[in-house]
Amino acid sequence: MRWPKRLLVAGVAGAVALTASACAGGQVRGASKAPEPAASGTGSPAAQPTGTPSEGVVNDATFVYAPNLDVVTDWDPATSYSNEIIAMSNIYEGLTRYDAGARKAVPRLATEWTSSDGGKQWTFKLRQGVKFHSGADLDAQAAKKAIERTIEKKGGAAYIWDAVDSIEAPDASTLTFKLKYAAPLDLVASSGYAAYIYDVDAVDESGRTDAGTGPYTVGSWQKGKETELTLKAFDGYWGGWKPEQYRKIAFRVTPEITTAWQLLQQGEVTFVPRLNPQLFTQAQTTAKVMTAQSPSFQNLLVLFNTASGPAKDIRIRQALQAAIDYDGLVAALKGSGQKASGLVPQGLLGGAPGLEPKQDMQKAQELLQSAGYGPDNPELKLSLTYAQGDEDQKLLVTLLSSALKNLNVDLRARPMTWNAQWDLGKKQGQDLFVMYWYPDYPDAYSWFLNVFKSSDKPQFNLSYLKDAEIDKAIDALPQLTATDPVKAEQAYRDLQRKLIDDRAAVAVPYVQTYQRALSSDVQGYADNPAYPNVVFVYDLKRAG
Known about the structure:
Blueprint: E1 62-65, H1 85-88, E2 96-99, E3 104-107, E4 110-116, E5 121-126, H2 140-153, E6 164-171, E7 174-179, H3 185-188, E8 216-221, E9 227-233, E10 248-252, H4 257-265, E11 271-272, H5 277-283, E12 289-304, H6 314-323, H7 326-333, E13 337-339, H8 361-370, E14 380-387, H9 391-405, E15 409-416, H10 418-425, E16 432-437, H11 445-452, H12 468-475, H13 477-483, H14 485-502, E17 506-507, E18 510-519, E19 522-523, E20 541-542
Parallel strand pairs: 1-10, 14-15, 14-16
Antiparallel strand pairs: 2-3, 4-5, 5-7, 6-7, 8-9, 9-10, 11-18, 12-16, 12-17, 12-18, 13-18, 19-20
Helix pairs in contact: 6-8, 7-9, 11-12, 13-14
């Protein structure tokens, strides 16, 4: 089961919309005290070691990240499932990391891996000479204990390991997984959540630890302070250090996007994860500032209530799909979103070009009339919930409300905090539910398992769809992905057509485009959509 997460996703619009895996928002666990800093820090660098810690002049510059929300909601690397991904990805590492350009997993703590038995057995060879921040050595037994603890905790995104039957450590550098069914474990191991390797012996009773293996460790944490969290270089990092790298990271919480923009111009922050279209345009011509723009793996979903209320009639759902002004919405987003093609964003296996939706008001009117509604029939009243404070979602609602009004449909839209919206959704309390989604690990399976598989007690299946045929097809996806990518591509395409066209359970208006602004003296920045809003600071250099 997927646990709620993503306070950050619910949020901000026009401002910094930090979103994380997959849902529109989510319950944030109560934050505990900060872990005591261990020997030094962790993070995620290049795929191969770069040598021993360098001598000579050290770059003492601090990389200042300006999120709009509190950073840490859960310090336990086993259960972390929210905002803290932007910090923990610099404190912990997994066996692999996803390379979005190559569309495959690449080495991290594992240097190589093989699969056998039709994708039901995976063997990983571990990197040598790696130390945890606690000072302990990383070996196969330690990695085994970390993954097993994460599985046993059953929190956060632990479901990613559901295929695992057993883990063995035949020697210090070898980790072998035996699976209950074939699955792409190299992709699973590159997840942004629940795939961290950490020193289990350094975890206290509350789950707090800073004993990862990456380039940075915790310097300070002051909950509620503007500079909430600082990280410092871990001198024992296996990748080594060069003088031009950032040895410090600070997370300076800045709720107002205009304030973050001003701080960037003044040189007080280094990175702003999202600007609104107006400020992004301004940033493109501002001295000492550079911009970055790239497509994400995060899309917006409009889920229709297939179980109760007016939308239980498929003609109503199809009319709603046809009434959305997809092109007008994308134009109004001014570069911060691109038109979706099906459920799966491009760049993931299962992305399906040619499924782009189109507005068709005549079709919408005909469908409504056949269902007994429309301009010359009784008014249709529908309820919709969306994320409070998210201007992009509000824009969708405004355009859809206007279109439906011409068809004698009253769309009663309620902006809500994520927890309130989600609680209502689990009670089938609305006709349309608007939320974001993106995967925990770089695989399209997340959308289908979490959002569309039948569930007696809805978690994220907020269309309430129950379809045994679709469930069976969803269950077959992991094995197909691991053993026959060509068949998997077709299976994903078929499922998307069934969910969008045949069942009309969802509309997918757009995929978000990340629009970043950062100091022009930063070198080497590149977005990785598999790790939303994460900056792998170790990979950067500071000019001058």
